[in-house]
Each structure stands twice: as structure tokens, then as C-alpha cells.
Amino acid sequence: MSKISRLHYAIGSLVIDIPELELSDKGVTAITGHSGSGKTTFFKILLGLHQPKAWSWNFDGVEMAHLHVSERQLGVVFQSYELFPHLTAEENIRLIMRSRNNVSSDALKQLEHFKAKLKLQKCWLTKGKYLSGGEQQRVALLRAILSSPRMILLDEPFSALDQALKYEAYEIVQEVLTEIQVPALMITHNLAEARLFTKHIIEFKNGQIQ
Amino acid sequence: MKDRLKPLSFLIIGCLILFFSAPVSVILYNFSLNLDLEFSDMLIAFQNSFVQSVITATLCIVLSMLLVPGLSELKNTWIKRIMPAALLPSLLPSIFTLLIVFSLFRDFPFGTTGIVLIFFVTYFGMSTLILLNAYTALVGKYSHLIKIYNISLIDRYLKIYLPELFKDIITVFLIIVLGCFASLSVPLLAGGGRGTNVEMYIYESVFINGNWGTAAAMALLQMTIIFILGFYLNRISYFGSGRVDSDTFKTKKINLSLVFFLFYIGFYVVGYFYQLIKSLTKINLSNFYYSEFLVSLSNSFLLSFLTVSVFAIILVSLLFIFFMQTKSYFLIYFLLPSTTIIGLSLYLVFPERAHIIIDALKIALGINLIYTLVLYKSYIQPQLINIQSQLDVARIYNLTFQQSLVSVIWPQIKSSVIITASILSIFCFSEFALIKAAGSQTLFSGIFIERLVSSYRLEQGFVFSFIVLAIVFGFFYTVRLLSVKDK
């Protein structure tokens, strides 16, 4: 379990107020809520992009709240994927693998394995700006997996996909997340989508847990 | 690791502030202010500065607002390609505008009239494009409501457009006023009589009267005015909500506004080339000052190299600060410095007679002090803001600054950087006011061309200015071609 305590953060008119929250260290935890409920702000706090004062996030004995964004060893899939558009799919992933020092032979085997599983062979040498939405999503996910993360955070990972692609994407992402055995936190406003992935669902409302 | 680098980013900001505030510090350190001023002369100088800048800004805005409604109704796609040419007068060094306008007159109206004319030509295009962008966004936003409720023309303008455009109008007004206040090159060539405006008054206090204390006092007053106006400009700086996609209000292919605006663009671009061709047919090639020009050109190449080198150091520093997300908003208060103050501070710091490299370095620092921040804010910072999320990803995944610079930032901003470096180089080859204010003894091509213009040898001025433009554009176009890998 990872435990968040005393999280209090105000941004604009929204106040995130979480006295205590436990996140599962296995499988997927989903955070749901309407627009403006504070899900994305909470997401950015966990990543380290916002810095509240005097809160605690204990993850397997590591006090994450005190760590800088680059030291938290997290993987991320943003809603808009945020691939580097001028780099190919392969370059996007290898850049992160190098920066996270994940270049062992095991890591390279993992790369080939998930590249095939996520069906990225055809677009492997395509620049990020030319990839389709589904391809960008899978590249962003593979990038997160191969960053050797202690946890993967996904912010509305399916919202940019059209309906036909979504069902295929659900299946692939579920398979991959189950296989890698790294805990994941998924933000979604779609409760049905959250239920597809997990029973651990946390609802946000006005910056607070319901 | 990033936390350990944070103090370095603060140190860099400190160094940048020291660098950009150095001209002021140097002048204040070297001279006790002489407050025993000639108030009548001083008043005339400030009055002239004020009158010239306000008249220019008012003329630009009034005429722009008359053209903008018509321009917003045009639906030709080729017009969108031509419009940016209207920015050339404000982007290129003032020597080009001076050449074009001087060539129109047998007896140029030196003094306030001439200065206002030059400033108007410089800023009218920029003013029209900024207000057109804001106006088009507004009209797009309200066009359906206006049609549905049949709102009258007068109500449209008085109740909707003008109140909503008020901030844009004030912003443009302040940009033009500040640009006019801080310019030395235009009053230097187009001014008339002693103490024409504040910049000239300061310049003449030093180089004609040898009255440094008075110059320092005037410089301080000028700086305060520029700082206050600049502070207010940065607070309200606002350029509308961006273009709206709706084209339902664009119905015309041509109208009177377009004709006038094309006339303005044509006057500058076609006027320049027309005068150039005319000059080529008139000049005597045997009396062409080849050796002086070649010397000035080679000195300017050195200047350009040093300027771009200093720019590269400042740019990497700014990129580091941006990457580290350290607050640097106060740097924007150095956006519109006075040419005279910078020139004079360099004159004080560097020896008057120095090796060419030292002299070129002096001017390179001056060009960066004047232009780097405004070019960064105009061309490079918007690109960085666009890739802000990618930099978040880079930070999350522990990319170092060097890795991010090479792999993420540079590939996506290199076009903007090349454009900025090109503009700086054009200034290196055309700048004369700063060089004179800095007391440089080296012959740079800007000084060479300025001497031709001020002695009314305009034909040679046109030809040499064109050679300079061709060299700079040719070089940077080649660099750009070589640097573009993906098509």
C-alpha cells in the first residue's frame, strides 16, 4: 500500500483536501469524478508538477513527497500523450530508457516483447507527429513501461480515442498492465471505463475524496 | 539532481539582471548627477520626445482602425501571405526606412515632422496587423449574434468592438511610444536642431558639450519614464483571443482598405527595390568606395560572429531558466532599453581606441543588450510555451538539461533561433546609432551606409544596403536549408 496524508493544496478556486488516502500497490486504482473535481490537479501533485507543503506520500517506505519530480521514478501517460513530435516512436522510447538508465539486455528484451504486444512494429520508425491517436497512446504507454517506474500514472488515457479504437485499446492496456505488475493509477471521468479496469475506484468531488 | 541545479538557475538570473542593468549602473557609478540642468532645453527635449511618440502612435492607431474593418472582410488566401511583409519596417533596422523615405524628398522635412514620418512608416504595419488580429477574433466571436439581432453599425463599433479592443489599442499605443522614446537612429539622421529629443539631447550632452553629469541626469529621467511605461505595458499586454476560424464574415476579394494597405507594403518593399534599381543605373562604379566598403563588411562579419556568440550564451541561459521553471518575469522590464544609455555605458567601460576585436565585442554586447530580450520574447518564448508539456515529460523522465536541450528543445526551436540570429546579424550590418553612441572608431558597414545617407549619397546607400541584406539573408537561408532534415 502507498499512503497519502495531510494533502492540502489550493489552486485557483479549487482546494484539494485529502487527510488520508491509501493507494493499492498492486493492479490499477482508478480516480473518477466530474470535470473540475480536482482529479488532474491530484495527478500533477503525485507527479511532482505541483508542490504542496507538509504532506506525505509514503510508497514502500520511500517518502515520495520530498522527492523532486525526476526522482520519483514514475511513468506517465498524459491525456494528450505528449510524445516528442520530431522523434520517431523508437527514439521517444529509447531516449527515456537512456535517461532512466534502463538499457540492460533484459530491458531490451522487454522492449521487443511489448513492442510486439502493443503492435507498434509498423509505426516504429514514424515520427511522433505523424502517428495516429491510438499509436501515440500505445507509444506513450510503452515509454512509461520501459522507464522502469515504481508506479504508472495515466490521465484520461482513452479520452482522445474514438469509440471504435477505445475497446481495442482497453483490452491491450489491461493485458499489459496486468503483465508488468507495476501499480497503476488511472484518472478517468468515465465510471464504466474505470470498472473495466479495477474494483478500486476513488471518487473525487470538489477536491475531496467521497 | 534538479534541486541542486535550482541555485544555479537563480545565479544565472542574477547574472542576466546584472548584465541587462549594467548600462544604468555604469552611468550612475561614473557620474554624480548634475541636477543643475538647462531646464528650457530639457523641457524642449522631453516635449519633442513626447510629441513625436504620441503623434506617431495616434496616427498609426487611427489609420489602422480605419483600415482594419475592411481588411477583416477579405477572403483571399494570398493576402495572408503578403500581410507579414507589413512587419518589415518594424523588424528591419531603421536605415532601410530612412533610405526609402529620404529618397522621396528633394528637401526632407528634418525635425519633428521628418521624425514622425519615419516612425509612422516604421510602426504603421505592425499596428495594423496587431489590431487586425484582435478585431478579427472579436468579429468572429460576435458575427452570429450581430446578424441574428441585427445590431446597428454604430452600436457594433461603439458598444462592442471599441470597448473590447481598448486594451489592444492601449498596448499598441505604448509599444509605439516606447519604441519612439528609445530610438536614437531616427532622430540622429532625421532630426534637426540641437536637443531634438531626449535621446539626441543625451547624445549631444556627451559628444558635443562634454556635459556628462547632465547626460546622466537626463538618462535617469528617460529610463524612469521608459520603465514606468514598460511596467504598465507588461501589466496590460493583451492581444485579443486569437483568430477565430469562422469565415462567414469574410465576403470580399478586394476593397479600399486592401488597396491602401497594399500601397503601404508596396511603398516599402517595391519602393526599396525601385530605388535600388534606379541607383544601380545612376552610380559611377569607378567611384564606388570599394575598399572602405570591404573593410566595413569584414569588420561587420566579425561583429556578427561575436554578436551571435554572445546571443547563444544568453539564449542557453534563458533556456536553462525556462527548463528549471525559475521565475524570470522581471527580465521583461529590460525589454525596451535606450540606445543612448547603452552606447554611453559601453563608451565608459571600454577604451575609446581599442583593438578591432575589443571594439567589435563592445558593440556585440550593446546589440545584445538592446535586441536579445525582445527577440527572445517575440520568437523563441512562444515556441517554448508550446512545448511546455513536453518539458514536463522530460523532467518526469529525468532527462538532464543537456539531453532536453539537444533532443527536445533545439529541434523544435531551431527555426526561431535561426530567424532571431538572422535579425541580429542584419542589425550588426546596419546598426549605426549604437556604434556612434558607444564612440567606436571602427568602420562597420552600418556606419559606412549612415555616412552615405547623411551626406545624401543615397544611391550608394541603397546599393550597399542591398549587398548587406543579400549577404545576411543568403547566409542564413543556406544555414536554414542545411539544418532542415525532415520534409
Sheet with the most strands, sense and barrel status of chain B: none
**Residue-averaged pLDDT of chain A, rounded?**
90
Q: What is the H-and-E element order of chain B?
A: HHHHHHHHHHHHHHHHHHH
Top-tier CATH class of the largest domain in chain B: Mainly Alpha
Biggest sheet strand line-up of chain A: 6-7-8-3-9-10
Rounded Rg of chain A: 17 Å
Helix content of chain B: over 70%
Number of helices of chain A: 6
Q: Give the CATH class of chain A.
A: Alpha Beta
Percent of residues in beta strands of chain A = 15-25%
Tally the structural domains of chain A. Answer: 1
How much is the average pLDDT of chain B? Answer: 84
**Rg of chain B, alpha carbons:** 23 Å
Enumerate how many helices of chain B there are, as a single number: 19
- Overall tally of domains of chain B: 2
- Low-pLDDT regions of chain B: 238-246
Q: If classified by CATH, what would the architecture of chain A be? A: 3-Layer(aba) Sandwich
Tally of DSSP β-strands of chain A: 10
Brief overview:
By secondary structure, chain A is α/β, with parallel strands linked by helices.
Task: Looking at this protein, list some descriptive labels.
heterodimer, A: alpha/beta, Rossmann fold, 6 helices, B: 487 residues, mainly alpha, MetI-like fold, 77% helix
Question: Secondary structure elements and their pairing?
Answer:
The complex is a heterodimer of chains A (210) and B (487).
Chain A: E1 2-11, E2 14-23, E3 28-32, H1 39-47, E4 56-59, E5 62-63, E6 74-77, H2 89-99, H3 105-117, H4 133-145, E7 151-155, H5 163-180, E8 184-187, H6 191-197, E9 201-205, E10 208-209
Parallel strand pairs in A: 3-8, 3-9, 6-7, 7-8
Antiparallel strand pairs in A: 1-2, 1-4, 4-5, 9-10
Helix pairs in contact in A: 2-4, 4-5
Chain B: H1 2-30, H2 39-72, H3 77-82, H4 88-91, H5 94-102, H6 112-149, H7 153-181, H8 185-190, H9 198-207, H10 212-236, H11 256-282, H12 290-323, H13 339-349, H14 356-386, H15 388-396, H16 401-430, H17 433-437, H18 445-454, H19 458-483
Helix pairs in contact in B: 1-12, 1-13, 2-6, 2-7, 2-9, 2-11, 5-6, 5-11, 5-18, 5-19, 6-7, 7-10, 9-10, 9-13, 11-19, 12-14, 12-16, 12-18, 13-14, 14-16, 16-18, 16-19, 18-19
